[in-house]
Amino acid sequence: MNLDHATVRHIARLARLALPDGELDAVSADLTQVLHLFDELQTANVEGLNPLAHPLDVTVTLRDDAVTETDRSETLLALAPESQGGYYLVPKVIE
């Protein structure tokens, strides 16, 4: 499938890309190659293959879900110019 200039311009407009007229031939050739690659992939025999989430056999080592930090909220609130009820008070900026 070869893409004409009108189709390439339409695709560029949909993708919100500014495409100079001098690049239409190159972009058209590149898009045509991509479409041919998809056609080749469509013909691949995938019968009996299981889908993969990752191409490598990777396992994730999980760590224990344990609290490692202490509650420092009071210390941090003490640094603020104003606080109330555990929240920082800031000046009103929107009327």
Automatic annotation (TrEMBL):
Any GO BP annotation: translation
Reactions the enzyme catalyzes: L-aspartyl-tRNA(Asn) + L-glutamine + ATP + H2O = L-asparaginyl-tRNA(Asn) + L-glutamate + ADP + phosphate + 2 H(+); L-glutamyl-tRNA(Gln) + L-glutamine + ATP + H2O = L-glutaminyl-tRNA(Gln) + L-glutamate + ADP + phosphate + H(+)
Molecular function per GO: ATP binding; glutaminyl-tRNA synthase (glutamine-hydrolyzing) activity
Superkingdom per UniProt: Bacteria
Its job: Allows the formation of correctly charged Asn-tRNA(Asn) or Gln-tRNA(Gln) through the transamidation of misacylated Asp-tRNA(Asn) or Glu-tRNA(Gln) in organisms which lack either or both of asparaginyl-tRNA or glutaminyl-tRNA synthetases. The reaction takes place in the presence of glutamine and ATP through an activated phospho-Asp-tRNA(Asn) or phospho-Glu-tRNA(Gln).
Subunit structure and binding partners: Heterotrimer of A, B and C subunits.
Protein name: Aspartyl/glutamyl-tRNA(Asn/Gln) amidotransferase subunit C
Organism: Tahibacter soli
Organismal lineage: Bacteria, Pseudomonadati, Pseudomonadota, Gammaproteobacteria, Lysobacterales
